[in-house]
Amino acid sequence: MPHFAWKDEDMAESLTFFPLVGLGIGALITLLGRASSILHIPAAVSILLSLALPILITGGIHIDGFLDVEDALHCYGSAEEKHRILKDPHIGAFAVIGLLKWGLIDAAAVTAIWLHPGADTKTLMLYGLCFVVSRCLSGLTALGFQKAKKEGMLYEETKGKKRLPMVLLSLQMLAAIGLMAALDLLLTGLLIACFGAATLLYRRLAYREFGGVSGDTAGFFLTTAEILAAVCMAICMYLRG
To answer: In the chain, how many domains are there?
Structure first.
């Protein structure tokens, strides 16, 4: 079998394509909203499909990391024990409980967004762009935060040159935020504050519990940040009326 060399800087630059995945998710959610309106698809069907789209497109690899972190956090042991659990291919009870808990919160928030009286195509576009911002932040934190261990896929992907990937991710995030602001300036400001808080909490959690970030914690961050953004958007929409 031929061997293909993969340079460290190339692996780091691959993170710059993460936001394009988010853009695809957001675009499909927006198209789903338009199709639902034109074809009179039941709201429940549209909501469930919009919840499934991120998993169908990505294969749910970020959820795998989320599950591992949920199990590790609830062992209440040393950092070494937590890392051992992260490597364990089995799923524990706390991972299942965590997925159900966060999944139901996400479902409630997305339902509130879709069924809000003022929800329209712009609303779904704004929600869809959150998937771009979350992946920009996922890439930036993977590149910029301290790594838990000097091994593993995330370390290998990000130990090379970081400046160009970080600049490209930052530019993509600014572009997404600009589009969001054009759709709804106030709601965008609140969403960015939510993402900022989620990022700071993620850094604190990862450093305290694992000594830094890893591929698993990156999946945990992406999953929880997107759910928190949906919750923030739903609450703000209903408070505004």
So the answer is: 1
Of 150, 140, 11, whose CA–CA distance to 83 is shortest? Answer: 150
Q: What is the pTM of this model?
A: 0.89
Give the Cα separation of 132 and 171 in Å (integer): 12
pLDDT digits (tens, 9 = 90+) for 67-96: 999 999 988 777 788 888 888 888 899 999
Query: Is residue 2 assigned to a domain?
Result: no
Within a domain: 1:
no
CB contact set of 123 (below 8 Å; sequence gap of 6+) = 113, 116, 237
- Note whether residue 3 is domain-resident: no
**CA 216 – CA 69 distance, rounded (Å):** 6
What domain range includes position 222?
9-240
Position 4 in a domain: no
- Quick: pLDDT tens for 212-240: 999 899 999 999 999 999 999 999 999 98
